[in-house]
UniProtKB/TrEMBL annotation:
Residues 1-37 are annotated as: Disordered. Its main location: cytoplasm. Residues 253-337 form the Ig-like domain. Keywords: Cytoplasm, Disulfide bond, Immunoglobulin domain, Methylation, Phosphoprotein, Repeat. It comes from Octodon degus (Degu). SMART domains: FN3 (SM00060), IG (SM00409), IGc2 (SM00408). Myosin-binding protein which plays a role in cardiac function. Seems to regulate conduction in the atria and ventricular conduction systems. It holds the Pfam family I-set. This is Myosin-binding protein H-like. InterPro entries: FN3_dom, FN3_sf, Ig-like_dom, Ig-like_dom_sf, Ig-like_fold, Ig_I-set, Ig_sub, Ig_sub2. PROSITE patterns: FN3, IG_LIKE. Belongs to the immunoglobulin superfamily. MyBP family. Residues 140-230 form the Fibronectin type-III domain.
Amino acid sequence: MESATTPEVALGSKLKVEEASPADAEGPRASPRQLLPPVEEHPKIWLPRALKQTYIRKVGDTINLLIPFQGKPKARATWTRDGCALDASHVSVRSGEQDSILFIREAQRADSGRYQLSVQLGGLEATAAIDILVIERPGPPQNVKLVDVWGSNATLEWTAPQDTGNTVLLGYTVQKADTKSGLWFTVLERYHRTSCVVSDLIVGNSYAFRVFAENQCGLSETAPVTVDLAHIQKAASIYKAKGFAQRDFSEAPKFTQPLVDCTTITGYDTQLFCCVRASPKPKIVWLKNKMVIQGNPKYRALSHLGICSLEIRKPSPFDGGIYTCKAINALGEASVDCRVDVKAPY
């Protein structure tokens, strides 16, 4: 039985098989860019609005930042601080397909700085910077001293604290306490200068003063107290009497109220009155029909504070007549008269 042969075999020719080179077997090489998958979504970081300004935390607080981003296929996120790699023993970073978390359990002042998140995808990159500031209470002011005391005022001076707590100071708080009560009262808050005048101190008290520094965390834990006390003493007042001319009240007698004519009935006591003004005190003399009646028991004469009176006891018709009151002093004399009529009863 004849076997089928190819025409070349039938003619008695030889088949040459050329060996293929390794380069021909591999075929044309592909470039590295042709090996990467195509970028479906460019990398982009969605930074929260609160992190676009300085992120401030207190010492001991927890820092937990969640930063979302985009990029397809999966992008690679890396964190740095001030251009250096993070300390993995203190700062934890966890990155997923759509966000990255920066976690610090207990923040310290050394953790302050600029943190940068970089999201890379192929030859594309997106970055975002976050400024973190870790602060604490400031130290106390230095060299607080009492400079001067005058009247009810006291002048204080001090210098800024050595440690401001890693942030700017908001000012100083000044307090006073009197030695009697020992209670502290605030007189100035968020005062920006390093010297002040405390006014309206109570006379007779002694005062001590202390000064706190203040920042965003609050007042300093301690405050130095002035060594010297401010003693508010009462000013010695010297009264100077103004000179004035002594007024001369000397005056000659002058009757301000004269005697009045009167009619009386026999047996009924009668009184006569008049008023006189004089300095020095005048001598009063009573007369009846121009005859002095001083010492007569029928008459009773009185003079007090310029009021002169004459009492006629149980007058009779013979007691009628002209009665005169005369006032005499060194500057002159004056007199007043009146008529007294005595009638028998009906």
